[in-house]
Amino acid sequence: MWLYALRRIILTIPILFGVTVICFALVQIAPGDPIQNLLSPTASQADAERLRAAYGLDKPLPVQYVIWLGKVLVGDMGMSIANNTPVTGEVLRAFMNTIVIAMIAVVIAFVLSTIFGVAAAYRSGGLVDKAITAVAVFGISVPTFWLGVILVIIFAVNLSWLPATGMGAGGSKGFDYLSWSDFRFAVMPIIALALPPLGIMTRTTRSSLSEILNQDFVQTLRAKGLTETEVMIHAVRNIMPAAVAMLGLQLGYLIGGSVLVETVFTWPGTGYLLNKAILTRDIPLLQGTILVLATAFVLINLVVDLAQSLIDPRIKRS
Amino acid sequence: MTQMAISPPAAASEDPRDRGGPAQPMLIVDGIRKYFPIRAGVLNRTVAEVKAVDDISFYVVKGETLGIVGESGCGKSTLARLLMHLIDRDDGHLILDGDLVGEETGVPLDGLRRALQMVFQDSYSSLNPRLPIEQSIAYGPKVQGASSKVAKAQARALMEKVGLKANLFAQRYPHELSGGQKQRVNIARALALDPRLLILDEAVSALDKSVEAQVLNLLEDLKRQLNLTYIFISHDLHVVRYISDRVLVMYLGQVVEIGPVDKIYEDPQHPYTQALLACRLSMDPEERVEAAPLAGDPPNPVNPPSGCRFHTRCPFMEDVCMSKAPSLGDVLRSSAQDHLAACHMVHPGSGHSRAPLAVRA
Amino acid sequence: MTDAVANSLAVAPSQSAPTARVRSYWGGVWQRLRYDYVTLFCIALIILIVLSAVFAPWLAPFDPYKSSMANRLRPIGYKQFLLGTDEQGRDMLSRLLYGGRVSLLMGIVPVILATVIGGLFGVVAGYYGRKVNMGIMRTMDIFFAFPSVLLAVAISGSLGGGITNQMLTLTVVLIPPICRVAETATSQVRNMDFVDAARATGASTTSILFTHVLINVMSPVLVYASTLVSISIILASGLSFLGLGVSPPTADWGLMLSTLRQSIYVQPLVSAIPGVAILVTSIAFNLVSDGLRQAMDVKA
Questions:
Q1: Of A111, A114, A106, nearest to A202 (Cα)?
Q2: A286–C158 CB contact, under 8 Å
Q3: B42 has a chain A CB within 8 A of its CB
Q4: Topology at the third CATH level for domain A87-317
């Protein structure tokens, strides 16, 4: 067990290393010369060269990478071009806003998907099953940003129940998730975020449950005289390790995929930050945000794997 | 070394493909060895080796059937794949009809492939599920340069030869065939390159008893018609006795006993062979064994026992068995009629209390 | 038993024997698909969507680029505007038909490119194993460290907008998952005895790959690739929504959704239409790939 954990942690290092390489490459594939943007139009060739040397851009790429990586490791991800503020602080502030709603969304999706999955598997092929499957297909196929727009149309425009965008007053003085006047701003982003994982997890739960219900040991349980409900509890207990792992994975996807939903609701998280970076072509900000999100995704996967190997001793993947 | 005196086989023949003459063995296996590395730990280093095939030597006389028996995991299938060059050997030589195989001076691999073919055990994975069986059989000849038309005609003729009506079966897919039919296709495919030596790796083990008998009879007939030599690998001792001329017994990657079939079955020398034979189910209720003659699983081939590898399960184990590995003797210089066993009890002066005192004649 | 053997050795093929009619693999797939009405309906729907995109110039009642200040944001069914007009007074139906061209292109072309490239890498990694496998699959693992949307936004955000960059981005995003599926399928096939039997005939690696491996790897890879079409459409529309797709005058479902977002208070229904087009297309592709997976699940 400990050997597995150690091995899994060590295997994460080259992945994280690769992530930094890709993030570094993002600046390289961006069109345009960063130096030209900084120079006044009248600057001479010699001025350009001096500035290039000052930023270390005259050195070969591997050297530039090592210098950049060294700074990143001590938490310096450069300055945002648009605001001229340190990228690190801006990204971390936004990250807190993103991770909270992503976690709430994924927990809601997990609870609902378990209920839906059990209901669908209970009478496989029945009306309930078909309805739930339809909802799941909808959740998987729907573009989240469009769903966001629809939610705004219904709940903000037509019913005026919820605010359409932003964080409200809480955005400036500290958002309180426990007070309704603040939390109502988060309701629609959470719903829009929760639907795709709800669809995916419902489908997975349903199919793994019906697979288990067809196994021999379930027949034995029935033969022993257990009621269908008791049998179902056995089956659900069997899929739980996999379902928990799925939950972690979906949380990772939500953190990375929040860019569209947050843009629709102007929710000031990492996704909104990304959108801002794209619109203003603020490459350092883009690079920093991507790096933080990808690192978070890798670490979440690591934690999920370790947690799963704790719950389910059968899992010892190489 | 490659030319040695062996009594000519019973079914001596005039085969145009013959190079070394009737006395030259079809195949000589000299000291072949294959260890598989086991990787483990955080850094995935090689921590041990499985000695799957550990210094095995034997020969196959032209026209005979050599049976190879042993428990599962003893290295039978690895040996088959080594002979076919499907996996690389770590050490040892193969001599095919007098020519070294694979090395610069000897027969090229291509020549070996035409002369040596294999019939696989698992009929599920042995045929490409997406190819009609006619194409599976015709593939070999096509690879060797036959035109598509010629290869197809050959495939159809072979199907008839193994008892499958070409008109009915040529276009079928493997999943539309029964186990016995698939095995006939397997045999036809192996015969498509007109081989001289066929390695049958558990070729009938997965079949029903009645179908098994049909396929065995087919193999006997084909052998006579096409002048074939067989290496017949099986864990089924009844089948091996039925089909073999000589038998080789393997234990943990080594040969423990080799000899003519009747001598092995009627007078087994090695305690392992004795135990294996005692495991057979008897048709006579009075003779059924109740206690298992072979207790436990075979030891781990990663760390085989010292001395004689069988000593952990041998009822006659003595000190000498733990310290010194018994030798089988020089198989390659022995005659096909000789009966050899790698046991201290048959070697005079070995130090075992049951060893014969006088040197045998 | 002896009879059977005697028969088995009858060498002369009897010409009068009946010839068996045997269904090919694809014939079997079609037989199963024939009675799957949901899948058939979705296939028909996709054909309809594709045709209407291809023939958009003939089907569109108006010029999709002709704006009119007088007719801005008209409701559904206003005069001759069947689906209303957008914020610049352009006919929604015409723009929807033209927009389908870009959106479908973005759903299909990157998947095809990624299937060819990723499939090739996967088959090579799966067949050769060891170091080649390590090199290819560990590189892919790095891309798996990014959620797909994030990777798309990262690459597209750095490269900038435009149809070529969008296509390039989506292809790069889709290569790793296809590569992984192809690698798994190949290494399973590679361990089958029939591959060893083919090697034993002295066949070259290329010949074995084409005759024995590809044919067996193809169907899982194709089924998987078909599930990616819907993902690719959604990703592409998402990128367009963020302004990373085609540039404004061009019609594209994601971009239309983005520009109409300002108008949800005025014309909520019209603003939602491009999203419906994305949703319907994406559901149709999803259900077809589900149906294909079931139909192609042949027992070997």
A1: A114
A2: yes
A3: yes
A4: MetI-like fold (1.10.3720)
Structure tokens at C110: 């990157």
Q: Is C133 helix (H, G, I), strand (E, B) or coil?
A: helix
Cβ(A117)–Cβ(A187) below 8 Å? no
A25, B255, B270, B307, C193 from B327: Cα distances, Å: 64, 10, 12, 10, 35
Alpha-carbon distances of C42 from A127, C104, C221, C276, C288, rounded to whole Å: 21, 15, 21, 15, 6
Reported as half-sphere exposure (CB side, CA atoms, 13 A), residue B254 has a value of 23
Q: Do C12 and B165 touch (CB under 8 A)?
A: no
Instruction: Give this prediction's pTM.
Output: 0.80
Maximum separation of any 2 CA atoms in chain B, in Å: 68
Domains of chain C, start order:
46-295 (1.10.3720.10)
Q: To which residue do tokens 């060590």 refer? A: A10
Give contacts of C299 with chain B, Cβ < 8 Å: 175
| Domain, as residue range, for B122 | 27-130+173-346
Q: Which of C225, C291, C261, C237 is nearest to C38 (CA)?
A: C291
For residue B100, the domain's CATH number is 3.40.50.300
Residue contact A26–C275, C-beta within 8 A = no
Which alpha helices (H) appear in chain A, and where do they start and end?
2-29, 34-38, 45-54, 61-73, 87-122, 127-141, 144-151, 170-173, 180-213, 216-223, 228-264, 270-279, 283-311
Tell me which chain C residues have a C-beta less than 8 angstroms from the C-beta of A15. 141-142, 145
User: For residue B144, is it within any domain?
Assistant: no
A-contacting chains (≥3 CB pairs under 8 Å): B, C
Per-residue pLDDT, B180: 86
Q: Are B214 and C1 in contact (CB < 8 Å)?
A: yes
Nearest CA in chain B to C206: B143
Stretch B342-361: mean pLDDT: 75
Q: Are A149 and C243 within 8 A, CB to CB?
A: no
B321 part of a folded domain? yes
What is the pLDDT tens value at each position of chain A, 318 positions in all?
677 778 888 888 888 888 888 888 877 777 766 666 666 667 677 777 776 676 666 677 777 778 777 777 777 777 676 677 777 778 888 888 888 888 888 899 889 888 888 888 877 777 888 888 888 888 887 888 888 888 887 877 777 776 767 666 555 556 666 666 666 777 788 888 888 888 888 888 888 888 888 778 888 888 888 887 888 888 888 888 778 888 888 888 888 778 888 888 878 888 888 888 877 777 778 888 888 888 888 888 888 888 877 776 665 543
Interface mutation vs chain A, best among B38, B39, B42, most A CBs within 10 Å: B42
Interface check B45 vs A, CB under 8 A? no
Contact B336, B244 (CB under 8 A): no
- Find which of B84, B130, B185, B222 to mutate to test the C interface (most C CBs within 10 Å of its CB): B130
For A299, the closest chain C residue by CA position comes to C145
B146, part of any domain = no
User: Measuring CA to CA, which residue among A16, A130, A90, A109 is closest to residue A268?
Assistant: A90
d(CA C194, CA C202): 13
Per CB-CB distance under 8 Å, the chain B contacts of A7 are: 42
- For residue B300, being part of any structural domain is answered with yes
ipTM score of the complex?
0.81
CB contact under 8 A, C238 and A145: yes
